Amino acid sequence: MIKQNFKRRLQVWFIGLVFVTLAIFLLSVWGATNNHIVSNAEKELAVSERVFSRLLDLRGRQLTTSATVLADDFGFKQAIATEDRDTVLSALINHGDRIGTKMIVLLSPTGTVLESSHAIEASENLLARLQLQNQASVSGAALESENSSQAESPQEAYDLIVAENSIFQIVFVPVKAPNLIAWVGLGFAIDGELAQSLKSVTGADITFVNHPEKHPATLLVSTLTERLQEMLKAVIARPEFNDDTVDLKDRVRSFLNTALADEAIISQAVDAQQLGAGQIDILLTASLQTALEGFIPLKLQMLTIAVLALAGSILLISFIAKSVHKPIQHLVQVALRMSRGDYTHVFETPRNDEFGTLASTLNQMQEAIIDRERRILYQSQHDWLTNLPNRQLIGDKVLERIARAPEDTFVLMVLNVNNFRQFQDTFGENLSDEILIQVGMRLQRISGYEETVARFEGDQFVLLLEELAEAELQSEGQKLLSYMTEPYICEKTELNINFTIGAAIYPDHGKNKDDLFRRANIAIKRAHTGQGAVSVYQEGEDERHLREINISNYLHDALDNDKFTLFFQPKYCLKQKRVTQVEALLRWTHEELGFISPEEFIPIAEQSGNIGRLTQWVFRQVLRQIRIWQDMELNIGIAMNLSAADLLNENLPHQFISYLREQRIDTSYLTLEITESAVMLDPERALESLNILRDFGIKLAIDDYGTGYSSLAQIKRFPVDELKIDKSFVLRLDQNADDAIIVRSTIELGHNLGLKVVAEGVENQESVKILESLGCDTLQGYYISRPVPAEAFEKWVVDYELSTEV
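^ Signal protein, sequence as received from the core. Prediction below:
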């Protein structure tokens, strides 16, 4: 199941972005709104402060007017001047009752309290203002004589004072007769009722705090709620609030930060110095709650809009995420199927956007992959040169046929192009490839069905045929060879090519693919030995094939560990009447396979590429043995055989010469024997190698003469020293006249060419006499001695009577 991580992440990212944006917007608007409310409240509080100050000023002027009337009363002046205390008190009380004042005070010119309705003390602030007012009055009297119209009226002095734990607004005016004889003061009480009236006018709560010097502050009057008043009382009782070194505004800020920290309230301190209130703190406070409550509906509307916007955004984002994720998910599913090798699904592309382009590109890529895999599959199952099925496909076809009809018989036939590698070396790659192409085309025309013929490997082709008896198979094979060996025209050149055929029949020769192929190849190997161009597998050949495989495997170990030995067969010189030379013959006895004949392991060494190592081993052993016999003063030469592969090895002559120089061996004691067939494989190359060896002083001999394909002209070209008549002509020499004729002509031919002649296969006295009469130079055979090891030969040659005739 495809994970939805991309879709979820897309939704979370977009929803988070919208949420953060809405949150920032709401917080910004709410913050701006709150700031606006606070700013407006502060402005209104400032206005309230001015209104409050103006109201106190108006009340002060009212008191001033009333006190001036009293101070100008003649009887009141006379009573003060005559110190008629009862008259003064009566006048003060009556006047105060008329205007509704609560406090009446009479002071001496120096500020001493003469009469008072409340226990008060003139403060330093009040005395200073009275002095200033008196100086102004004197200055006004001095100017009156110069310009009476410009004389100023007496100046009043008013203050906010605390008496008997109550706060009063009091005004003092001078009493003159004509000089200053007293100060009369009238005052209104500032109580809760008056504070509420002021609150109704200013719109702000008013609080008066008594803050005398060196005394604790006390709350006098306040329009705040009882809870806030109790909180305020707790705050002003603290020592830091009663610190006179701290400015009033800082104390008010402390009040706000402590008492009203959790309240929606702002506060403004009134400058009490302007009001003559030196020891009184006046606070104007306003609640923000009402203003804030007015914006609650707006905030709710904004919050509702934000929630709706968020919900709408979530729906829109979900739709967008789905529309984006769906084609991507489809593309992922297609890609996963493609990764599993399923290219059957085609992605529909109705969209014209980037997804449509991507889907179209994916379809094209899928088609390209299908086409490429089809070509790769075809190439993996077909030969690149002939376009025929290759080894893998024909093997699959064999398996299919066995599985489809396990009881039915069919034939697996292998056709081999003989000596193709030599042909390739001679004519080159291009011409060789053209030959293979034409061979494949002919086989297709014969089979009539392309899948029944294949190129198995380089020079081998395979055919699958219907049920045929072995006799019919031979006939069909010969017909096939007749057709296939017709001349080929390549690059305007007519070429004749030979073939061999090996066949295996299912299920007689194998019930599985591997057995059939292996046994068909075993049959074709037998065909290569000259036992018929068409060969059908025979029972028992598999065991011989397994033995060959074992021999090939054991050959490496034998070479690495010197498990070969040399036997030596004497050659008797008729002229000298003694043994002058031996032939070194290679022997191998394996601990499991027993004795292995050279006729068996030499071809395997040639096929496996080990013949070079084997020849070098024999050559070194021969040189070693020559050195040993020379040290023993046994002047016996040694002949050794070279294979066809040795003659085609361009490095071999130089290696032999290097060994000879290293061992300092006299080359006259060494003879190399070569066969006619080996020389004729590549006469030019063989001639080049033989000339190098002959020039260095090594003797050369043609072995098995009479069984090959050499002509007299070819023999004349080769730098050989002797001819060895094949034993097939010598074994029955005393019984077969034809063999005698061949031997006579060969001896005469050799002598006429200046060559010595050796007859091998001498096994009786009669043959010795005939050969001696024919002038043969040297004899070799069981009659003289069988091949023996070096130690046995050394004993034999010492005991042998050289002077005695054979």
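The chain has five domains: 1-55+300-342, 56-143+153-287, 347-379, 382-539, 559-799.
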